[in-house]
Design goal:
Layout: H1 8-20, H2 23-30, H3 34-48, E1 53-55, E2 60-62, H4 64-87, E3 95-100, H5 102-109, H6 113-119, E4 124-129, E5 143-148, E6 156-168, H7 171-176, E7 190-193, H8 205-211, E8 223-225, H9 228-236, E9 241-245, H10 246-255, E10 266-277, H11 287-302
Parallel strand pairs: 3-4, 3-5, 7-8, 7-9
Antiparallel strand pairs: 1-2, 5-10, 6-9, 6-10
Helix pairs in contact: 1-2, 1-3, 1-4, 2-3, 5-10
Length: 307
């Protein structure tokens, strides 16, 4: 009798959750929401007919079934990664692969990269932009910019920029819709960056309205975007006012393409943009990673934070 094989995403969700013993950390690694990841694990449990985790108030632990299953799955994923590494062509020593999210690549990193290329013409720079959290070893990434808490195993993480959110719109929109006090937002279109739902405890319009002293503001209306840069682009075209992330909006704000109608901002606590890399066998940065690290910190220091 042929055994039923569960979908790979269910197995990956279970393996990551079992390794971290945290739905939140596993969801961050796989770049899905904790609720979506929990649902995938429950689907696997339903297919197997038994629980894999004991869900406690503030933690989880493996059941006997989960404990038996996890080592084999972990070994299987490692074997898959090893098999792919065997057929992957040798990487030239001068190739530098930088991983990042698509929004940060589009709104901040990509427009600056010509400076790095000019300064280091000997390096073959490649940008790997993906919503998935890159594995430096498995995906052949030398260094990555990661949005999260900074507690990553087996790598070095250096904080680049803290994150915060604030209402952002175009100068033309503000001229057409004068916003003198936060309560004036009731009369204009608001835009939502739903990508913040991936961040535990990240503030949204409701938290900003509370901080701005207008807790009764209707913040459930308006257009929603699941990519942060799409919301900023819509705001730049005059579609409305978005609660935008500082790290993604700062170049447009500093250039005057976007403006801040109010001074109130809300920090995204315990979350920042991190420079993440894997040290070599001697625990040091490789020369090409060192070059990128020095360059990007110089760029961060040169770009004034708008709020």
């Amino acid at each position: 009798m042929k055994r039923e094989i569960p979908p790979l995403m269910w197995l990956r969700a279970f393996e990551a959750t079992g390794r971290h013993l945290s739905f939140m950390k596993a969801a961050e690694e796989l770049n899905v929401t904790p609720s979506a990841l929990s649902h995938q694990v429950r689907q696997l449990e339903e297919m197997l007919g038994q629980k894999l985790f004991v869900r406690l108030n503030r933690s989880i632990r493996l059941t006997d079934a989960g404990t038996r299953c996890l080592p084999g799955l972990r070994d299987g994923f490692n074997r898959i990664a090893d098999a792919m590494a065997q057929v992957r062509p040798a990487v030239p020593v001068n190739r530098l692969v930088v991983g990042t999210g698509p929004a940060l690549a589009a709104k901040w990193l990509a427009p600056l990269l010509y400076k790095f290329v000019d300064a280091h013409p000997d390096l073959d720079l490649r940008i790997a932009a993906s919503l998935a959290v890159a594995s430096l070893e498995r995906d052949g990434i030398d260094v990555t910019l990661r949005f999260g808490g900074g507690n990553y195993e087996g790598v070095v993480a250096e904080k680049l920029m803290d994150e915060a959110v604030a209402p952002i719109c175009s100068p033309a929109f503000l001229a057409q819709h004068p916003l003198r006090v936060p309560a004036d937002l009731a009369s204009v279109q608001i835009l939502h960056d739903d990508s913040l739902c991936f961040v535990d405890g990240a503030p949204g319009w409701r938290e900003w309205a509370q901080a701005a002293g207008v807790p009764d503001l209707d913040v459930d209306r308006g257009l929603r975007f699941n990519h942060a840069d799409h919301g900023l682009d819509a705001a730049m075209e005059g579609a409305g006012i978005v609660l935008g992330r500082r790290t993604l909006a700062m170049r447009d704000l500093n250039a005057g393409r976007l403006v801040l109608p109010f001074e109130v901002s809300v920090p995204v606590r315990n979350t920042a943009v991190w420079l993440v890399y894997r040290p070599d066998d001697q625990g040091r940065m490789t020369p090409k990673v060192h070059a990128f690290r020095d360059w990007i910190f110089t760029e961060v220091q040169a770009e004034p934070l708008p709020f």
